[in-house]
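Need Protein-export membrane protein SecF's 3D structure for a figure. Predict it.
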Amino acid sequence: MEFFKFERDIPFMSWGKYTTTISLLTFAISLFFIVTKGLNLGVDFTGGTVLEVSYAQPANLDRIRSIFVTLGIPDASVQNFGTSRDVLIRLPAKHQLSSAKLSETVIASLKELDESIQIRRVEFVGPQVGDELLENGALALLFVSLGIVAYLAMRFEWKFGVAGIIANLHDVIIILGFFAYFQWEFSLTVLAAILAVLGYSVNESVVVFDRIRENFRKMRKAPATQIINNAITRTMSRTIITHGSTEAVVVSMLLFGGETLYYFALALTIGILFGIYSSVLVASPLLMLLGVKREDLVKPEKKQQEEALP
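Structure prediction for Protein-export membrane protein SecF:
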């Protein structure tokens, strides 16, 4: 059942020059900000102290943040965790102060502000552990990318694998570009969101690629441009419904999920939006550029020689 019906094929491939130009520009701008400004790595990657505290009444985050300004730690992260009475505090590593001494000073100041405070958890993340997490995160991205290329190449053909991974990495670089430009905190949850976006985008690419392969088998006399336009148009109803409902959930999480989920939901929101764009207007034009043709997917039929009757 299709809620959105299109009577004619939408000429997506005729927009290839414009969409490719837009993609190259956004990719180059994102890469520029990643190189020049860098990512604002969180405590997970740089090392530091994580405290989880609980109050008898809803916590006043502004007053708690003012304590850290007074202590000379204005870059401390203070956010609700679970309920409005629970607070998660992330302190960056200070070279002139040990983690134990820093946490003792902070706890003493918090108790001066409110004696009802309860310390639930204190964890130290060393710089070496942070480096290992960063290295493992980069390896996870690399292995996921290689896995996507191998999967698409086996299921379809190597041209589909190349087009799919370029389109998906295009989404990742743009997400990182947003985080670099606005200096939003890049934490392990954001890395998890990026890996989720990779999986989500490749799923959309597979749907379009499946339809392209089917069209190559059915529309034997049609050119590749018409085949791809028809494939994307026929998946538009599914694309609108699937991505619309997913984006509604993610935006709800962004608006009402609190500070803990904010950057996770923000990365997903950006990634899904660009994932839709890249699956339709980046991966498919790349297939055309790589010269995809019917023979890549459909084996030529062997002419059967009629056996001469004796």
